[in-house]
């Protein structure tokens, strides 16, 4: 009884899948949404764009100094240091990060184009197989019709 229910459900699922035809536009949209490589490139783009915003200054440095002198004294102290680069260096680094973000955007476009090309090739391969099956089924039907005509119209 369980086998019959399982067979019936699997037949229903397969029939449901084949009852709705998937167009190439729908297939390519599903590829754009669910492709892992495209998602990865998109996340890399978001990270690169986040890095390109604002200016980057080196973090301040704090240090504690304790020295022993030959005369026997030991001066103690602390130091806070902040390096400020030249403004041209800051702007050039910002431009570089912007260019890196643009490169990452182009890489995303290349990744999308590559995934779409692979998806199109897979879709065309699937279509060719489906057409071959359809032709085979038509040929089989024609052969069966011919055999029935020969068998029933043959003189006894």
Key phrases:
156 residues; mainly alpha
Describe the protein.
By secondary structure, the protein is mainly alpha-helical. Helices cover 72% and strands 8% of the residues. It contains four helices and two strands. The chain has a domain at 21-56 and 85-153. The longest helix has 67 residues, at 87-153. The chain has a two-stranded antiparallel sheet with strand order 1-2. The protein is rod-shaped, with a radius of gyration of 35 Å.
**Number of strand segments:** 2
Would you list the SSEs in sequence order as H and E?
HHHEEH
The first-to-last residue Cα distance is: 48 Å
Low confidence ranges: 5-17
Average pLDDT reading: 79
Count the helices. How many? 4
Q: How does the overall form come out from the CA principal axes?
A: rod-shaped
- Structural class, by secondary structure, is mainly alpha
List the helices and strands and how they pair.
Elements: H1 2-19, H2 24-34, H3 36-51, E1 61-66, E2 76-81, H4 87-153
Antiparallel strand pairs: 1-2
Helix pairs in contact: 2-4, 3-4
Short overview:
Helices cover 72% and strands 8% of the residues. The chain has 156 residues and is mainly α.
């Amino acid at each position: 009884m369980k086998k019959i229910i399982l067979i019936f459900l699997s037949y229903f699922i397969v029939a449901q899948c084949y009852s709705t035809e998937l167009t190439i536009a729908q297939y390519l949209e599903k590829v754009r949404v669910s492709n892992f490589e495209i998602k990865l490139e998109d996340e890399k783009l978001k990270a690169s764009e986040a890095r390109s915003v604002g200016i980057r200054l080196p973090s301040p440095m704090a240090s504690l100094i304790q020295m022993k002198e030959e005369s026997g004294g030991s001066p103690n102290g602390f130091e806070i240091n902040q390096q400020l680069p030249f403004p041209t260096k800051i702007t050039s680094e910002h431009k570089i990060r912007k260019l890196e973000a643009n490169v990452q955007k182009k890489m995303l476009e290349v990744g999308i184009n590559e995934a779409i090309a692979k998806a199109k090739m897979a879709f065309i391969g699937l279509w060719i197989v489906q057409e071959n099956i359809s032709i085979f089924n038509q040929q089989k039907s024609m052969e069966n019709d011919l055999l029935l005509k020969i068998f029933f119209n043959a003189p006894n």
